User: Fold these one by one.
Assistant:
Number 1:
Amino acid sequence: MWLGRGSRGIAGYPCGVSHAGPGAPRTSWGRAAVLVLGIPLGLVALAFAFALWVPSSGPTEAATVDATPVSDVTPAVPSTTPDPTTAPPDEPADEPTAEPAATPTGPDSQSPSSATGRSGRSDANRANPALDVVWRVETDDPVFFITVDDNLRDQAVADAALQIVRENQIPITAFLTTNYVGDDGDYFNEVTSFGGSIQNHTVTHPFLNSAGSDPYFEICTAQERLAAQFGDTPWMMRPPYGEPYFSGADPSAVEAASANCGVNRIVMWSAVVDNGKVSYNPGTTLQPGDIVLFHFWDPKFAEGLQMILDIGKANGLSPAPLEDYL
Ligand SMILES: [Zn+2]
C-alpha cells in the first residue's frame, strides 16, 4: 500500500528495565541450647555461650528486610527538561499511549470516502505495525494527499486557507512542531476536522541526525504534548528537512526513537507546493498516491491549495485522508 525505501523492522531499545532487588540472604540459626548444669565452670561457660548467642540470633530476620525499591524503571523518554515557556501546563506524567483509542472500522473503512480522521489507525496500519518510511502511497485509487507542516505565521493567510479547506472538505494531515503551536490550537483543530489528523513534526524542528539533537526528546516529547493538547496520540512523524533521508545519513537512531514512541510511519513527500509553485518528485504532474507537502507559513498557502485542487481535478484526482492509506 505504500512505497518506502525498504520496510524496516526496528528492534529498538528496551522501554523499561526492571531491576529486582537482590534475594534476601537468610541465615538459619538453629544453635543448640547451651546446657550448663551444676559444675564449677558452668557459670563461666554459660556467660561465654550467651555472649556468642545474643548478638547473632535476635535481629537476624529483621536485618534481612529488602530495602531495595520495588522497581527501578528506566523511562523510554529521556528526562530532558522541557522548555517552561512552551510546555503545556498539564503535561501528563504517563508514557504516551502507542495505540490510540480504537476507532470502529467497518468494511468500508479503507474506502477513500470513509475518513477515519483524527489519528485513527487504518486496517492497513494495523495489519503492518512495523515501522515504514513512506514517500508516496502506491494505490490505483484516484486520490492524493495534502500534508501541511510547521506553524502559522500570518493569520490572514491561515484564514484564507481554512476557508478553502472548509468549502472543499479537505482532509488535512498537519505535522506540527510543538514549540511553535502557541495559541493556535483551535485553528489546527478546525483545519484537520474534515477527515484529517494532527501528527508529529518534533518539538524544536532540528536536523534529527545532527550532533546536538536528541531524537528521543524530539519525537517522544512531541507525542506527549500533541496528545495532551489535541487528545490524539500521533502515529506518523515527518522529520524536519526530510533528514536524515535526503542526505542518506544513518537513520537508525531516528527510527528507533520513532518506534519506541508509538510512531510507525515516517512520512516524507513526493510533491511540494511552495510560494505558488508545485514541483514533483518523481514525475511531472500529480499522480495517484502523491503526498503533497505544504507549509502553514507559506504566504501563498491558500493559493497553493486552490492550485493543487485544480490540478487534481484536471487529473481526475481528489484529496483523501492519508490515515486511511497508511
Ligand atoms: Zn518543517
Note: The mean pLDDT is 74.
Number 2:
Amino acid sequence: MRIAVTGATGRVGRHVVALLADDGHDVVRLSRTHGVNVVTGVGLAQALARVECVIDAASGSAAGQARPTPDAALEFFAAAADNLHRIGHAVEVQRMVEVSVIGVDQFTSGHGAAKYAHEQRMLNGPVPVRVLRAAQFHEFVPQLIDWGIDGGIARVPTMRIHSVAARSVARGLVDLATDPEWAARPTRAEPPFPEIAGPDEGDPVEMATRFVTHHRLPLRIHAVTPDDPIYTDGRLLAGPHAARTGPTFEKWLNSATAAPPVRAVDTTGCSSAADSSGRHDTSPANRCPQRPVTCAQRNSRVVLDR
Ligand SMILES: NC(=O)c1ccc[n+]([C@@H]2O[C@H](COP(=O)([O-])OP(=O)(O)OC[C@H]3O[C@@H](n4cnc5c(N)ncnc54)[C@H](OP(=O)(O)O)[C@@H]3O)[C@@H](O)[C@H]2O)c1
C-alpha cells in the first residue's frame, strides 16, 4: 500500500514511517526536510500522486525552537488540513488518519483549542478521515523541559496524563490506516473516537525530574500550575474505552532506542559578566553565586534533541 506520512521526521511520524516500512508498505515521507510544505502546499501534489492513504502527524513545532503561539498553531493546522483535503482529493487520495489528543474537545482556548479545530477541519473535508486520540507522548516531557528552560531551571506544567510512547501511538495509526475493512469502504469516523494511552497516570513535573536525573542534566525542575483547570482536573486522562499500552515512562526512559538523544551542556545561571573577548570574570567578587564556572559554561545552555 502506498501511504504518505506528514510530519515524517517528528516524534510520532518517524515511528510511523519506520513501522510502515517494516510492514513492507511504500512510504512517502512528507516534511519540509523532504521538500514538502503542508502549509504552503509546495511539493504536496507531486508527493501525493498515487498515494492511497495519508497519516497526518505534522505539527507546527520545530526542533529547538520556541513553542508556536496558539494563533500560529491554529493557522498551521487550518492551512495543513485544507491543503491535505484539497490536494489529496484532487489526486484521489482515498482516506486519511489524523492523530489527535485525548480530551481535545474540552479545550476552549490555547493550543488545545487549535488542535480541536484541526480535528474538526480534518473530519469535515472531502476525504474520509479516521481520528486516533492519543495521550501526551513520553517524548513530550523533554519538549516541555526544553520550552521551560530558564538558566539552571526548567519550568514544567503540572498535569494529570496517561503518557504513552510515541512508537505505540504510531502502531495504532498504522493499524487504522491499513485496516482492510476501512480500506474497502472508507467512511468518515464518528465519535466516540478511539483513544490510546500509556499504562500509568503521571505528572510531567515528576517525569521531568526523573528525566533530568536519568540524563544527569544540570537542571532543576520547577512546577508551574497551568491557568486552565483542564490540565489538572482529570479531563485529559484516558477514557474507559482507551487502548492502554506500554512501555511505561520508566521503561521508555531506560530504553536506548526510545529515549531521545540529549545534547546537554552545562547551564548555571551564573550572573558574572563577560568581558569584550567573551571571557568571564571568575574572580571572587564576580563569581557565579551558584558555583564557580568557566566562560564556556556560562555561555552554554541545555539543548534537548527530539
Ligand atoms: N506531542 C504529543 O505529546 C502529542 C500527543 C497527542 C497528539 N499529538 C499530535 O501528534 C501530531 C504530531 O506531533 P509531534 O509531537 O510528533 O510533532 P513534532 O515532533 O513537533 O514534529 C512535527 C513534524 O511536522 C513537520 N512539519 C512542521 N512544519 C511543517 C510544514 N510547514 N510542512 C510540512 N511538515 C511540517 C516537521 O518536519 P519539518 O520540520 O522537517 O518540516 C516534523 O516532522 C500533532 O498533530 C500533535 O497534535 C502530539
Note: Residues 4 and 69 are 27 Å apart (CA to CA).
Number 3:
Amino acid sequence: MTGAAASGRGGGAPATSASAVDTGDLETAALETAALAAAQLEAAIRAVEHDIADRSRELVALRRDLHRHPEPSWEEHRTTAVLLDRLRAAGLDPRPGPTGTGVVCDIGAAGAAGPAGDAAESPGPLVALRGDIDALRLPDTKDVPYRSEVDGVCHACGHDVHTAAALGAGLALAEVARHGAGLPGGGRVRLLLQPAEETVPGGARALCDAGAMDGVGAIFALHCDPSVEVGRLGLSAGPIGSAADYVTIRLKGPGGHTARPHLTADLGHLVGRVLVDLPAGLARLSDSRDGVNLTFGMVQAGDAPNAIPSEAVLGGSLRATGRVSWQEAGPKLQRLLAAIVEPFGARWELDHRVGAPPLVNDPWAVGVADRAARRVLGDDAVEPTRQSAGGEDFSWYLDHAPGAYLRLGVRARGAGAVDIHSSAFDVDESAVALGASVLAASALCALHDLA
Ligand SMILES: [Zn+2]
Ligand SMILES: [Zn+2]
C-alpha cells in the first residue's frame, strides 16, 4: 500500500489497443482526471474545515456534556445514547456497537451500513475514523464548570475530546457527502466510536470480531497529548505504542509459624523472589531490542508478623515494545514461576490477561495524516513523536487495515503539562475542532489515495 494517487482505480484503464487509441490522449485524460480529483479533494477539505469551524461551539458543548457525565469501560450507555441521537438528528443511520455500547455509523455513498455491512459491494473505498468513549475510575479534582458529576469517574484520558472530534469529523463529512461533489472516489467513511479502551481486553477486539473493519482501506485515530502544544500534532511512522497485559500471580502454601519456615512454604520469602526474579528473568529471556517490562503495582500477603501466610497475590502490568516478545512472554512467565516457586514447596497460579499488541503506525497512512495535518494546522505544525510504553487497543484495527494514530496537542500555550490519567488533566478546548478537522481531512486524503 503506497498510496500512489495517480495510478489508482480512478485513473482510467490502461491502453490495451495502442493502434485504436492515441496514447497522448490517454495521458491527457488521466492528467485531467487527476487534476479533477485533486480539486475535488481540496474543495472537500475546505468544506469540512468550514463546517467544523461553524459547529466548534457545539462540539465543545458536547465535550463538556460528556465530561460532566463520564462512564467507565463497558458502561457507556448514556454516552452511546447521546451519540446515536446526534447522528440520527443529522439524518444518518448509526447502530449501537456489538456489545451494546459504542456506535458504528457509515457516511457517504452507500448510506448507512452495519458493522458487517456491504462494504464489498460498494464501488468506492472505505476509511474508518475511531474515537474512544470511556472514562477512568478516577476522581475529578478540577475546579471547572464542566467537572465530573459522577463520583470517582472522570474523563482523565481525554476520550471526551476524541469522541467530540470524531463526531465533528463525521458530521462535517456527512455534509460534504450530501451537498458537495460527494466524498473522494465515491467512497465512504465509517465512524467507530468504541467502548472500553481503558480495559483489557478492550472494545476494539469486539468491533473487529463483529466485522467493523471489513472492507476498510485505512483507519485513523487521535489521542490527546499534553506534552504537545495545542495547534500542533505528534506523528511518526513505525512503533508508537506498546503491548500492555495484566498479570496476576497467586502463591499458595500451608502457612505456619515464622519460627519454623522449614516446615511450611515461606510465602514472604517467595513474594520477594517473584518480585525480583520474575521481571529480571523475563528480561534475560527476551530479545533486548524488543523491550519487555514487568512492573508490579500490587502486593498483598499476610496478617501478622509472626505467621507465614497461606496465600499471597501480586499484580502487575507487562509491557512490550515488540510483537514477538509480547507473544512469547506468557510461556516464559510460566516457566520462570515454576522455577522460582516450586523448589520451595509452594503452588502458583498465573492469570495473564492479554491486552493489545504494540501499536505500529503504517508509513503510507502516516503520510496521509501528515498531509492532512499540514493542510489544516500549518506546514510546521507536525512534530515527530516517540514510542510510548502505554497500551492502546487501536493496534487491533491495524491487523485489518493500514492506519495512523495521531497525538493531538492539547496543552494550552505557555501552560505546564498535566499528564493523562491524572485527576487534574484538562485540555485547551480549541483542540476539539482542530482534532475534528485533522481527522476529517485525513479521511478525505485517504479516500483520494485509495480511489
Ligand atoms: Zn487512558
Ligand atoms: Zn486514552
Note: The chain is about 35% helix and 20% strand.
Number 4:
Amino acid sequence: MASLDSQYGRPMVAGGLGRQDVSTIETKGTALITGASSGIGAIYADRLAKRGYDLILVARSKNRLAALARRLENETSRSVETISADLNNKTDLARIETTLRTNPSITLLVNNAGVGATTPLLDSDVEKMDEMIRLNVGALTRLTYAAAPGFVARGGGTIVNIASSVAISPETLNGVYGGSKAFVLALSLSLNHELAGKGCACKRSCREQRPRSSGTSRACRFAISPLRS
Ligand SMILES: NC(=O)c1ccc[n+]([C@@H]2O[C@H](COP(=O)([O-])OP(=O)(O)OC[C@H]3O[C@@H](n4cnc5c(N)ncnc54)[C@H](OP(=O)(O)O)[C@@H]3O)[C@@H](O)[C@H]2O)c1
C-alpha cells in the first residue's frame, strides 16, 4: 500500500472486523472489489470475506489476486473468484460491467482501483494524466452505472467509492489527481441526492477526522445502501 501522504493524499481507514469465528457468519451476497490485488482493496477483500461476503476480486496482476483468493478461501471458506482485468482497457472494462449487470448475487461494489501522482502539473506527462482520469473517473463511473440500476431494481445494494482527502485539498498533490477525486466526491454526493426516495440511500458511510496536530484528514468513502425498514 502506498504510504501516508505519498502519491494519494491521506489514506482512508477501512473498518476493522475484530476477532470472531468467521465460519459462523452467514453470507451477505457477493462483493466485487476493484484494485483488490494490493493495498486498500486487498484489505477490503480480507475484511469483507470475514464479514460473510463472497468475493469477486478485480485487478491486472493475476498472480497476486490468485494468492489472495487462496488465502481468503482457506481462512474464511467464502467463495473467492478473481478476474484479471485492466480497467483502462475497454474490452476488459466491458467484461466487468457485464458481470455487474448480470450477476444478481452481487450486493456490494467497491470502486477502489485508482492511481495517484505527486508531480506538479507542468512536470507531468499528459498521457499519464489521461490514463489516471480514465481509471479514477471513467472506469469508476462506468462500473457505478453498471451496478446501480440492478441494486435499485432489487431494492438493495451498496457502492463504496474510494476518494481521497485531496478531493477537498487539491493543492496538496497533483492537480489532476485532486480533480479526479473531487469528481468521485461529487458523483457520490449527487447519487445520494438522486437515490433519495427510490428505496435506496446514498450516504457517507465513513468520515475520518484526525486531530489538528496531524492535519485534518477526511477519508472519503461513500456508500449507497438499502433503506432499512
Ligand atoms: N494509500 C493512500 O494513502 C490513499 C489515500 C487516499 C486515497 N487512496 C485511494 O485508494 C485507492 C487504492 O489505493 P492504494 O494505496 O491501495 O493503492 P495500491 O496499493 O497502488 O493499489 C492500487 C490497486 O489498483 C489496481 N490497479 C491499478 N491500475 C489498474 C488498472 N488499470 N486496472 C485495474 N486495476 C488497477 C492495482 O492492481 P494491479 O496493479 O494488479 O492492476 C492495485 O490493486 C486509490 O483509488 C487511491 O487513490 C489511497
Note: Confidence is low (pLDDT under 50) at residues 1-5, 10-20, 203-222, 224-229.
